[in-house]
Write a structure and sequence with these properties.
Elements: H1 6-17, H2 21-39, H3 44-50, H4 56-67, H5 71-78
Helix pairs in contact: 2-4
Length: 88
Amino acid sequence: MFNTNRTTINQIFKKETGKTIFKYLIDLRINIASTMLHSTDKNINDIMFTVGFNDSTHFGRLFKKINGLTPSEYKDKYSWILQPKKIV
């Protein structure tokens, strides 16, 4: 389709973005998972499957590597849905 091979496409992509296609997609999927943990009440396994991971250990390891927290720690800390309502 692009009249080239995957190695060349990956090299061009990395030159333009600083990341391989694989790393870019992993970061994107973890970013989407982070957003979902922050802004929905879905459970972590549902989010994990939604963003395309099937192994919770792998997902948790990558999530912590990128965000510095496990998915459950991240949800506890950043989910606005789980925060107690303030009465003004």
